[in-house]
Amino acid sequence: MSTEISMPEEDLDPIVISELQFDRAAPHVQGLKTGLVEFLKKPKRINIVNFPVEMDDDSVRSFQGFRVQHNRVFGPCKGGIRYHQDVTVDEVISLAKLMTWKCALLSLPFGGAKGGLICDSKALSERELRRITRRFTSELFNELGPYQDIPAPDLYTDEQTMAWIFDTYDMLRPGFNNRPVVTGKPVSMGGAPGRHEATGNGCLFVTQRFLSKALLPDLQDVAGARVVIQGFGDVGAVAANAFHRQGARIIAISDSKGGIYNEAGLVPENIERHKAEQGSVVGLADSTPIDNQALLELDCDILLPAALGRQIHAGNAASIKARLVVEGANNPTTPAADRILQQRGIHVLPDVLVNAGGVTVSYYEWVQNQVNEQWDYDTTTEKMRAKIQAAMDTVFNRWQAFVVGEEPTRNHLPDFRTVALVIAIERVAHATLMRGIWP
Ligand code: NAD
User: What is the reported pTM?
Assistant: First the structure.
């Protein structure tokens, strides 16, 4: 499956994209002082580490990793670590910023961070991944901490990765309760029941709340909705199950090896079994193969990108036929695509809100770890549902204030992403000034 994007006229640099998103929100932010703009656009700290690791065949390879801390105004930095061959420091900077806005929008006592390690995890053995992760963690030891910076899973990292990070940190800092140093741990090691499912479940909860607002009069419930999902990992597979359980029809889904389509609906349980046996969703019985581009452009009610960034862009936004885009992934839609989709009347529920269920339950895990308690799945999931749906309401109500003219639109009605960022930036800017950080 090709992930290449052919549209020279749009600048796809992740920093440029995050600045454009900020610049669209900034004119609507109340009390945003000029000097603060530069401060909020830049990360507080960028850590780049290079380290050698002995491979299974006795060769030595050098790896490069990043940990970017964007902002600490609301508390310790929080954000996932991704392993990907294409990850860059600029991408990690933009994702760390997004975490700051996400935590602020959900009223979580964290600032934003993100980590990345350049590697193709699928080409590495488990023993190699363990050695790489342990070394990466020890390189970052001085930056991490339960009240300093708390990693979590992201693309191609999982609870096993988090267990290795915890163990390495715990060995280097004996005699303390180090459990809250990382979230998304295995449940047996202080992980929160429901964390694995949180991001995918959150996608459903935000969609349900949005549809109940009746902005799309003939689509007020996910039951019966035709859903297309890009990605079948932690976010995509859980979202597929969650939407399917509520009566939605999953008509197409993909992973890095390709996509599958069946207008009558795919059963997530069967896809999971097939993927576990064959290593991909491709080839599932009673499905037709479909490539990534065609999948994104399918006629459907809900398109849920849950894989990589910059998938909906100036080159394909005019061909998107979904009625609603629900961003499970981070940064799947570029600013040019946002404008095109808005002109075409297609609403985009943004990443900063939609996939915030993950960090919300990570926060619950962090809270539980302080006192060595563990809540059950239903308690955690219900708390997250209430919190993320309240955030949806806040964004929707503020958006309506622009629609009815209570707030000036400045020649362009802000979309839901812009409104969510206005709220988040306003909160971070206000807290920054309240803390009196100026000399
Ligand atoms: P994951 O590694 O568990 O799964 C990624 C999935 O994407 C896999 O199924 C992979 O095969 C698929 N994929 C990769 N390249 C693809 C391509 N070109 N076309 C189609 N599918 C492709 O990762 P994840 O944790 O599910 O994260 C997915 C996205 O969600 C990322 O953007 C991540 O930043 C975001 N996110 C994740 C969480 C979380 O809690 N895991 C929270 C917030 C945001």
Answer: 0.96
